[in-house]
Structures are given as structure tokens and as C-alpha cells.
Amino acid sequence: MKNIFLLFIGLFIGLSTHCQFNEKPIINLENEDEALLNWGYFLGFNQYDFKFDYRDIPDNGDILVSTSTGFNVGLIGELRLNQFMDVRFEPGLFYAQRTIGFRGFTDPNDALREVKSTYINFPILLKVSTKRLGNWKPFLVGGAAYALNLGSNEDSLEDNSTNTFRMTKNNYNWELGFGIDFYTEYFKFSPSIRGVFAINNELVPDNDPNSPWTSNLAGMRTRGIFVNFTFE
């Protein structure tokens, strides 16, 4: 997550120089935000983690999670409410990979589970912007999303006893973040950084109620961060 944040800061500094942070810049795309409807697309990166809730204090310590960088791609539809607020629909495809380490096992085949998730994400977001300042405009964005996890294994009859980690297919998240609209000569470019926090319990317990992997877990929820680069 630190690398993604540093990438966002570096991009912000570069664009700040390009878009003329001075008192009287040349105004690009002066009427860009006047349309009732606006369209675009986004590309980006993500890092997803897990938050575990335990029934009892684990004897061997907390479950470990190793994260890796995934990617995002999707479309944008925006409805203008007024000068400062817009409603956005951002359907997208999010690929993420996590490795879970269960303590107390000596065999790596039992201790490690590689969790690959492909989410089709459907967020409804409210974007709240400041007044445009030359060729840039900061904003906050937040809302709720439904995420379909195509790699959940929820319907599998196998479980961790046969190396299959299962999660729920249908999930619901909160999203909250901030970004900046940069108005270039030809298009509006908007880098943003956003946190995602799962609402529902995503764990599908093992068939055995005394499973060494899931019997002590009361819940498991996704949390993560992603950076999107939007073109409108």
C-alpha cells in the first residue's frame, strides 16, 4: 500500500507542475463540467488485504496476509447535480491476489492459501468538488458498492482440507477517497486514491465445524486501497 501511495504523490507533483499552479493560467476545457452527463474510463492499481475477527484469542497468533499489487479497469458515467456535486457510476473489473498464512502448521500445503479474486464492482458514488482553481480541482468521493467475486469458490464442495479456500460470491463495500481533476488541453485527467471496506462477512466456513483453519474465525472482511487514473 505504501508503494501505491508514493506513486500517487509522485504523479500529483508532476501534474501540478504541468497544469500551471499560478495566478493566471491558460484555462483548458473551460466548459468541460457544464454538461448534464459525462462519460469516461479508468485504469489503476490496487492492494487488497483481509481483516479477521476471532471467536477466541488465537493460541498461535493472528493469521498472516501477504498482499500483492493488482489492477483495475472500468467505465464511468457521471450525472451533474450542481457546480460542486456529481453522482457517479463506475462499473469495473478488479483483479487482486492475497496469500494467507495460518499458524500452527508445519506443512506449507496446510499453512498457506493463495486467494485470487476477480471482482466485478458496481459502485454508486457521490463526488464533492471544490471550486475550480485554474486547471485543477480537488474533490472527495465516497459511496457504496456491490462486488461480485468470480473467484470465490463459494459453491465448491471442497474446502481447506483439500486446499480450497472459500469466500462469498456476493459482497458489499464502502468506498471513500480523494483526488484532483486536472484539465489538460484535450481531456480531463483525474488521479484518485480510495479505500475500500467490506460490509459483510466474506468467509465461507469449512464443512468440519472443528476445522483448524476456520473454526476460530467469526468473520473475515476485505479492506484495501486503490489508485485510479480517470480519463474524461
TrEMBL record:
Outer membrane protein beta-barrel domain location: 35-202
Pfam families, alphabetized: OMP_b-brl_2
Organism: Cellulophaga tyrosinoxydans
Protein name: Outer membrane protein beta-barrel domain-containing protein
